[in-house]
Amino acid sequence: xxxxxFGAPGVGKGTQAKRISQQLSIPQISTGxxxxxxxxxGTGLGKRAENFMKKGQLVPDHLILEMIKERISxxxxxxxxxxxxxxxxxxQAQGLTKLMNTxxxxxxxxxxxxxxxxxxxxxxSGRKTCSQCGADYNxxxxxxxxxxxxxxxxxxxxxxxxxxxxxIKKRLQVYREQTAPLKHFYEEQHQFISIDGNKHIDxxxxxLIEQIKPYIKHADIHAx
Length: 224
Ligand code: AMP
What we know:
five-stranded parallel beta sheet, 8 strands, 15% strand, Rossmann fold, 2 domains, alpha/beta, binds adenosine monophosphate
């Protein structure tokens, strides 16, 4: 199954992608996670991307497309994958279409997750993640322990440096201007599903699965 999770920062794409990935045994490909790891390791890509990320701006399309091409060519992607945070611009979507054609991949299902802006701002400003296992915490719904030590793996819980009020505002503006127009691009050519993300995580997941079920191969349905 080939899925694109689409929506503003903070709508829950990553959380839902992780769950689907575990259940269907297909990788979650988060361009944000790949870039943050590249920055952490100080690779060439990381050095080129860091400044854009700090300011809440998009990393140039050609860097992202190279990164995606390399990632989806790996063997764990042979039976599908979930794109989380990509594509984010029309040139990225066009580049993906070209790649899909070259690799003879079936059409994507695009899942849009929607959440009102004021909820997104609250979510992002309370968001924390375990730097070791990636477990999510949130000051408002699922607070991290006072010592910021992950209850699952004992790793250090941190806040993303771009989850500060000024950068959140910028990221939402970038989303509205550069990413939101993609909806029309995909509505015309793909299976398109829209999910209300302003609900409990479990309910969002249940709705999402119900809606993508008709597109899942018979052999994978038992996993749900
Ligand atoms: P995310 O984790 O998806 O919120 O992404 C964090 C940051 O990484 C974004 O604000 C961008 O600077 C960069 N980024 C992630 N994915 C992309 C993409 N597809 N295109 C351009 N920049 C991206």
